[in-house]
Amino acid sequence: MYRLLQIVLVLIGSWTAVAQAQKAVELELVLALDSSTSVNEDEYALQRKGLSEAMRHPSVLKAIRGLGEEGLAISVVQWSGPGKQVNSIGWRHINSESAALQLAIELINMPRALTGFTDISGAINHSVASIENNGFQGRRYAIDVSGDGTSDNNNPSSARDAAVAKGFTINGLIIHSVEYDLGDLARHALHTHYTKDVIGGPGAFLLNAESFKTFGESMRQKLVKEITGPLFVNLQQGNPDTSPL
Known about the structure:
Elements (H helix, E strand, L loop, with lengths): L1 H20 L1 E12 L6 H16 L1 H8 L6 E8 L5 E10 L2 H12 L11 H13 L3 E12 L9 H9 L3 E7 L8 H15 L7 E4 L5 H13 L7 E2 L2 E2 L5
Parallel strand pairs: 1-2, 1-4, 4-5, 5-6
Antiparallel strand pairs: 2-3, 7-8
């Protein structure tokens, strides 16, 4: 009995040490960028440039300052088809203007890692696992999925539902590709797909970029809304508030 008590105390100590090792942040955020074949090299460069410019924008920097010392943890994932997801920029702690500007430099220089089909399910599952194992402990958890097409095979709603059940919010940014523009019906289908099958969780929202050239402006709006999330949703681990926007 005494030996069993010793083992229990050791395990409790280990769990406590792991919990203490996790750095507290207000928000854990994955930026999941579409790198499928429908995104050509010029369009990928526009995504990279737009994201870098958004990270340097005064409104985003102001939102980051509003989080205080804890700030946010952020990572960038490129995704395409099944089994094709890469953490292009590993987890960064952003709690100052200098840290945000350093991330912006990394973003503008981020090489393309993937091409292939479109598997939003894989992007969501990969992002969830990355957040769960990143060494941070956030009050909110968000996955920011941007893309220009619907899923080729797996409907992402199951992956979305599993993530939401764990307390994650999934937001979307759909990009209307001029090169692959198939008309109003296809645009409506893309919007419906993201609304019905991709976004979810407390405060989830969807934005539209009319082209890859306007991606940066849409991403700026999206980042501000996600970073300042406590103004419209209070999502804490194990205690989600499902108040609408």
